Amino acid sequence: MLQNWIRQTRRTYFGNAAAQRDFRVQLRGNRSIIVFGLYLAILIGVAYIQYRGVESQAGVSLSTIQYSLKSFYSTIMALLAGMVVLITPALAATAIIVERQRRSLDLVFSAPVEPRYYLVGKLMAVYRYIWMLLILALPVAAACVVLGGANWLDVLSAFILLSFHGLAYAAVGLYVSTISTKLIGAIGRTYITVMVIVFVTSVWAGAGFAFGTQGRERPFTVAMSPFMVADGGNTYTVLSGFQVPNWVLVGALILVFVRMCLLGAGSVLSDGREIKNLRMSWTVIMAVIGFALSNFGGGATGATFFMTRGLNPGAISAQAVSGTGASVAAGDLGTGAFWLLFPFIFSIFGVSAFGTDGHGWQRPNGWFTPKEVFSGTPAGALPFALLLTTVTFVGQYVNTSLSGSAVNVVAYLPYYFYSVGFWTLLWAATRLASSIGGGLKATQTTCVLFCIILLVAPVVFFSLINAGIDKPFEQPVWNFYILRPVLPVGTPTFLSALVYGVLFFFAAAALYALSINRTKQMTRTLEVDVA
Amino acid sequence: MLEVKKLRKEYGGLTAVNGVSFELQPGDIFGFIGSNGAGKTTTIRMISTLLEPTSGTAILNGHDVRKDPMAIRRSIGYMPDFFGLYDDVKVWEYLDFFAALYEVPPRDRPGVIDNVLELTDLTVKRDAFVQSLSRGMQQRLCLARCLVHDPALLLLDEPASGLDPRARSELKELIVELGRMGKIVIVSSHILPELADFCNTVGIIERGEMLAFGGVNEIVRSMQPVRAFKASLIRDGEGAIPTLTRIPGVLKVESNESDLRIEFEGSKEQQAEIAKALVEGGFGLLGLREEETNLEDVFLKLTTGAVN
What we know:
Largest interface: A-B, 29 and 31 residues
Low-confidence stretches of chain B: none
Oligomer: heterodimer
Strand order of the largest sheet of chain A: 1-2
Shape of chain A: globular
CATH topology of the largest domain in chain B: Rossmann fold
Number of strands of chain A: 4
Strand content of chain A: under 5%
Structural class of chain A: mainly alpha
Number of strands of chain B: 14
Shape of chain B: elongated
Radius of gyration of chain B: 25 Å
Structural class of chain B: alpha/beta
Distance between the termini of chain B: 30 Å
Largest sheet of chain B: 6 strands, mixed
Low-confidence stretches of chain A: 295-328
Strand content of chain B: 25-35%
Largest sheet of chain A: 2 strands, antiparallel
Helix content of chain B: 25-40%
Number of helices of chain A: 21
Number of helices of chain B: 11
């Protein structure tokens, strides 16, 4: 078995046929020469303009010159980041959708090829291309070193980080390409997703620089933005007394992220056969994230600051910043767990919906069947949501308790209850939307609208009516916002979490009750439609 | 040997394939006949492991499609009813790519590619881009792709669709050659006379169910228990009916002006009596021939054209 695993792994990563073919095509003809030529022209042009700016600063102090050279290096790296952000999604987003349109996937998967092999091959081709772009930029980066804006370690760590970021965007592109049916849609969605990721990670990185410790010891979040690799690349986090380079931590996180994207894409390509693997991995990852981002052993670094409080900026306190606190507020923990799970909102509608979409269909095979938890069918959606919520909360609780911090269970459990209620409400809304029978896409659109009405519209409305008021977010009207118990403003109480939890369950029960008869009717219609 | 056992595929409430079973030996060329939507492609996709059967299975040389799909994939070559070719690669690169997917060792690949190109008569196009090939050549390239790993079973879904008569003829010869090489070939097609030419076994499927399976002649005979003759006379045939019905073995005689249709079940001697009676009776016999039933007739008789 081990021998087989080694053979498969070797086959996947060395001499991968998909990677070779894609790379060969990428470099064929004039296209690559034009792309590389343009890329180099832009890079050299910007570097020259920037250098002339530095050169013209005659008679200024040495520190100003140093600052300018540092800025020169940062600009070059930001430019490289821009290139990676622009080029990578375009390469990856087309990788699978083009094959699907050409109908060559069936040919590939009638060969002894696992989706993992093929997806890794596609990813490797893009990754190799990213490295080509980075290596082409090496002379410009070397100029920064020669002029004194950076050292080789800075350049190397920045390049490694940029390549990791490119890898993450390529994985996003591959995933989106796999689930999309149209080329333009795939490219558009990939760019939007990548832009959101870049924005969020840049905010985190900025926060890391603003609130973290000084010098090279920084929270690992500073390395999470591609546009800040110049400053964030050569930093480290102290973990258990060891200085761990932040590019290693971010690289590890990105590899996990890439794995999940590939598993997601693989489950689509394998007609659902990989879903079990995907869901089990998510369960483990959420448990680990819940565990790791709870207290992290009470370490005194900026990373701990982010891990413990960074997800809940409202809870920032001197104690948290210094990282010396021995106890963690149950509210902070519960709120953190909720927001850790929040990205699941992008999946809950997909996993809960039933109906047809022209290609396949999801049969309404029950509302709550624990044994379907890893199967990918609608009956397993709610059990899976509950499982993810549970492992995240338990992970947090266990680590916090192990690190000697006392967690008030009575105050903590309402947040768990609130989270479970929240997911149950969204699940019930999806059931109702599905039962109307417009198809899977219509269901998901309806649910997105439902979320906008429920989660986004109140923010706009309450902000408008409180405009000009002192401390607008602390006005009582915000108590009517369903995310109030987990908002990083004011002082929410566990009681509000409990009350909202109860309300969620009542609302979910009502929506589900409305969907029952429609679902039965829908099932019959589906049978007829498919027949 | 390929054993297909009660293969069944359901999509929700629809049963696309319902308990299809058959067995094929090395060298068999099996014509899979059915209307669009009858379940041919679904069956082929299940055998090629691209679709998981709802129940039942297919076993190729001891490997089960459900339990060991990877082993099955190593032993089959699947050619769907579309090309799915990569335009931006050369012919040899395309074959090299699939040879790598089929785990052909790198050192063996050039030889394998040359062999399959020779077999499919594409050697001169080795360095041409795939997009520059004619439709017939692209079809042959698809077949070459299926052969790079020397599979025991070839699944060819509508391989002749869209080909001109010459390309069809070449493809037919190639398939016969593959059968001679000891491969099991499953060919689905609508062009029944062609299948009858080169298949030694056929199966007729409708609404997911196998209506008939066996040798071409065997099926035709089974569909024609009573032989029928057509007689052309100078005079009106009506008058010959009493004479003919007296001959032992003649079951039924129908007249259509000067033509007669005689249903007969008897010996050769009794058969000879028909001609003799018509000549001696002075009916002016112009011709007497046996009605032939071909695969198309059998297909039309067996099927209703209904789909799921």
